[in-house]
Amino acid sequence: MWMPLGRGILGVTLMLLLLGLLGAGCQLSKPYPAKRLYQFVVKRSGAKDEAVGEVLRVRPVQVAPAYGGKGLVTRLGASEFVSDYYSEWLTSPGERLTTLLSDWMRQSGRFRAVTGSGSALVATRVLECFVDELYVDLRDQGTPRTVLSLHARVIDDSGALPESMGTIICREVEPVEGASAAALVAGWNRSLARALAQLEGGLVALELGREGRRETERTP
Known about the structure:
alpha/beta, 29% strand, 9 strands
């Protein structure tokens, strides 16, 4: 098909410009960074406690909504928090912490059995745990710190009505060298190990205190 020379050259020129722009766009675009997934890893060490006849039920750990998502949370200011889209927990923090808390108490040897909410085994003690803080504190730019705080309520469920035995409060702040996600998670793991050890010690203290009160009540 015949086409005037000027119009043909203009069409070819526009096509070349369009292809050039598309090529430049492809060269300038960069692949998105891949997501990295992390999870809490702790293991109890040391001797087991002397076993007692109680059966402990560990209820699912509840995490404050601000920190219960999968993204690692960083605190930048007094009221400024951000969640990292590319660095996430493998499973929700509450789910993972429930597993680790149950495993820790089971490994302690303190209780005759440690069960979950779905167990048919009748529990005489119930442990409720709430995570109040779970974030990286970057307000001091020189020293990143991981923050983990929780409180736990211990319930005596051996009688006709549940009765609170007491509350255990733990707060751990861990300075971390470097701000990589892997280093921060390692800091959280160290904090979590100390917090679980405190929970175990608190449970033992509450049991001993309760036994002491029973002995006093039995003494004429």
